[in-house]
Amino acid sequence: MIRRTVRTALAAVFLAAAAIGMGSVLWGHGRDVLAVFSGRRATAVLACAVLVKAVGQLAGWGSWRVGLAGLGSPLPAGQSARIYFLALLGKYVPGPVWGVLAYVRLGGAAGVRAGRMVTAYLLNTVVVLLTAAVTGLLCAPGLGAGAAWLLAASPLALLVLWRPRLLLGLLAAAARLLRREPPAGELSERGVRGAIGLETLCWAVSGLHLWLIAVLLGAPAGRALPVCVGAFALATVAGALTLVVPDGAGTRELVLLGALSTVLPWAEAGAAALASRVCCTAAELLGAGGVLALTGRRKDRQGTGAGHGTVDTRVTHEGVA
Hints:
about 325 residues; mainly alpha; about 80% helix; globular
């Protein structure tokens, strides 16, 4: 109870500080920013940004699915999409355990053991961190020497691609941090490489939504492209590691603000960070809703078909009798 109260207080203080910081950046420029976001062109650009983010998330789902298959538990596309996109919504709840619990619960309903789901979660976490750090190198030149630590991520990622079995050591370290049992068994090297490739594609495509917003606000298209793609990867991971607030609220925006200020004035950079949050949330909610609708409709059709089969068999038997 005390721990929960402290966490809630920390979250409130952090969110208040982030809101004050963003508010000070936007103070006096709200009317100009709103003018940019009004009109048909802005509506079309924001709609494209949501669509691009949704497509990028499909690559993220593919990475997780390939990793799970590499552990020896392949799932059909519809079933795995339902697990991934529903569990993804667990990040909107503060704390590090909700995503894991969602994966375990949904995976158990699909017939995958809890230990295998936790290992797949840890594998995906390590792959996400590695690929985000490497993708973040794209914006490192604009951030200065403070981003030099990212240079260590590139050879590490290449080493994992060369010897994917080394990832078991990273998984064991992640398990210790989360106070979980270390992973057991073998990983498919092809599966690990596929997961890394798809997750890198996820960052590359997802970051384009931020680029569209930045260009709309006046950023030079060529110079802003690597900054936006790299900054989005770094900001998303920084937000995920801020466990006291749901979905890294505040952290992601502040990281984006610092990176985007190299290609935009501070006010426009702050507006782009906030618009990115709205687009990402909309894309994730639409993705989860779409998956639920599609998989639910498929189940209904299967159930109806099974029902018709039962009736037909009964009538045939009665006719023979």
